[in-house]
Amino acid sequence: MSPSDTVLFIYGTLKRGCSNHRFLADQNFLGLARTVAGFRLYDLGGYPGIAAHDDDRDGVVGELWSVGPDALERLDRFEGVHEGLYRREPIALQTPAIDRSVQAYIPILPVHGRADVGSEWIE
Ligand code: PCA
Known about the structure:
The chain is mainly beta. Helices cover about 10% and strands about 40% of the residues. The chain contains 1 helix and 9 strands. It has one helix at about 70-80; strands spanning about 5-10, 30-35, 40-45, 50, 60-65, 85-90, 95, 100-105, 115-120. The chain has a 6-stranded mixed beta sheet. The chain has a 3-stranded antiparallel beta sheet with strand order 4-3-9, with no helix packed on it.
């Protein structure tokens, strides 16, 4: 993993086998991961958003990827970071223990009223 790489926690359509994986496929898969408790996934309309949930005890299951600067810019554009859809922010993991900061795409609009789809995005 090069120092210029960013470690991303991927929990939705970018995961292996999911509909938008092609945007990530040429980067480095590091393994499975789980956030700390207190997060759930909400269906934002065919794609998920992660958000805080006080009663959650499981956290969200996803994947860790090491992503180079060009791919990161491509992903930010795809996720609408410049349009205010998601912001890329640090997230705390339960597993694995990793000595690098890990970021995830967090929805900017409130998830209030959206379906809680639990701890794992399946499509
Ligand atoms: N793409 C990003 C955030 C939600 C989505 O569908 C991901 O897979 O982590």
